[in-house]
Amino acid sequence: MASRRQMLRSSMVVGVFSLLGSLTGILVETSIAARLSLSRSSDTFYVAFTVPYVIVNMLNATGQFSLVPFFSTLDARHSAAEMWRGFSYAVNMLFLGSSAIAIAGAAAAPWVIRGIAPGFSAPQKELATELCQWLFLIVIPAGLLEGFRCFLLSQRRFALSSASGFFRNATVVLCVLLAFERYGIYSIVLGYFAGLSLQLAVLAAQTLISFRVRYSLTLVGSGEVFQNLHGAGAVQVGGILAWQAVVIVERMIASFLPPGTLTALSYGFKIVSTLAELLAGSVGTASLPALSRAAAHKSGTEEKKTFQNALEIGFVVVSPVAVFCLMLPHPIMRLLFERGNFTPQATLLMSKVFFYYTLSLLFLSGFRILSFYIFARQDAKAYVRLAAVYYPLNVAFDLLYVGLFRAGAIGIPLGLFTTELVTFGFVFQHDLAGIKNVLDRSLAVFAAKNLAAALLTAAVVWVLRFWLGLPQTGFANFVYLCELCGAGSLTFLGALAASRAITVSQFLTLWRDLESS
Asked: Are 400 and 415 in contact (CB under 8 A)?
């Protein structure tokens, strides 16, 4: 069984290396923002990027939730020859599928843009269509690299598979910085294609160096493991398509709001979802191989304990970050965006959008970890029920807040938050994936201690914010954030230690383990 300490170590490895990708991912957005600001040009690019980005996300989520359990089960139950046959099958299917999607998407780009942004002018639609056709090419390397990344994750090779996003994002940033003056907005397209190709090369190289790969031209798979892969993959594709349909509807709604709002919403959700992925996704990624093996061996006790450990670690890493984001949205957005063409007025809009998106951070993180648990158990029915409630509700609340209540830019973040609250109630009420068995008294006590520590942290940050005063320069703003977040982090960890949610001895043991590793 994977202990909480082992899982925390793995989560820290994933988190540290994912941080490289996440930080450079934010740099991608800030470098684009410095060139385009919140404008019609930025709205045009992000509309063009909508569907290719949707598909890349779909491949990422589908691959991780389907292929990691697939490879882990083959490794636990079958021979090496069968595992390499499964690997070859997955890589071949990803290549064929992503190529077909790229060709079809490029052909359908004019209709895609008209459907996503009916409020755009004719020149905007024309430019967005051309950008969209080129951006569909990134789907091919994005699909292939998922096969290698998920295989490495299933073998607990967390470091490079988690850090590989760094190579993609760094390439995009370099292209924007060095080629924008010459190629304009097309430098962003070039950066994404070159970056994803480099990411694929890095992951393929590690796989070939670390393992004796036995590739074959396998296009057909049979047996229970392959059937589970097909079922989980189909469910995941359906769920991700439903989610991306929500994203497209939100883009359609935002296209009627003032210029720059669509981009602000895109940035806000990107940052919050990146935080959820970096924090909770790291925990889920570290726990997925252990959960998958426990499910393969039909060990209910090990499943429950591993999932509880993942939730507890998720509470600890997400809670203080949520406090900082809710209490310091303007300094954070100022640090990330206010440079180049990005004005103080644009920073104010971003701060408001970011604050309301942050309300959903804890729930987004919880549902992220729950998704790992559901697919490790290969419980497709639970995921279908969850998706059938979540996605229609999200669209309904978006329309309610923006259309009926006239909430403007904050309506879509409020719609997400309300959806998360209602869906959590549904999951608990209907005991999806046996969640009531996991959310027992011990976990409730831990969550209460975690909440108390978060409230104390919020109080300390609130006092320090008034005591220090508002920073006047960019560097002073950076120091201000370091001081408040540092003091808040120490307060949070101290409160957890005082309540014995996590003891000092556990911290020291973990530190020694990290030193020895």
From this structure: yes
Residue 252 has a CB neighbour count (10 Å cut-off) of: 17
Question: Sign of the CA dihedral 313, 364, 282, 77?
Answer: positive
CA-to-CA distance for 192 and 135, rounded, in angstroms? 8
- φ/ψ of 406, rounded to 5, equals 55, 45
The CA angle 8-12-13, to the nearest 5 degrees, is 120
Single-letter amino acid code for the residue at 354: F
Count the neighbouring beta carbons within 10 Å of the beta carbon of residue 400: 15
Does this model's pTM top 0.90?
A: no
Distances, alpha carbon 417 to alpha carbons 50, 350, 360, 506, in Å: 22, 17, 5, 34
* Closest to 356 in 3D by CA, of 290, 404, 310, 401: 401
- pLDDT one digit per residue (tens) for the chain, 517 residues: 455 566 656 666 666 666 677 777 778 888 888 888 777 888 888 889 888 988 887 787 777 777 877 777 777 776 777 788 888 888 898 999 999 999 999 999 999 898 888 878 888 888 999 999 999 999 999 999 988 988 888 887 777 777 778 888 999 999 999 998 888 889 999 999 999 999 999 999 999 998 888 888 877 766 666 666 656 566 766 777 787 788 878 888 888 888 888 889 988 998 998 899 888 888 887 787 778 778 777 777 888 888 888 898 889 999 999 999 999 999 999 998 888 778 899 999 999 999 999 999 999 999 989 988 988 887 878 888 999 999 999 999 999 999 999 998 899 999 999 999 999 999 999 999 889 989 889 899 999 999 999 999 999 999 999 898 889 888 999 999 999 999 999 999 999 989 988 765 665 554 444 334 3
**HSE-CB of 466 using CA atoms within 13 angstroms:** 5
Q: Give 85's Cβ-side CA count (13 Å radius).
A: 13
Alpha-carbon span 487 to 381, nearest angstrom: 44
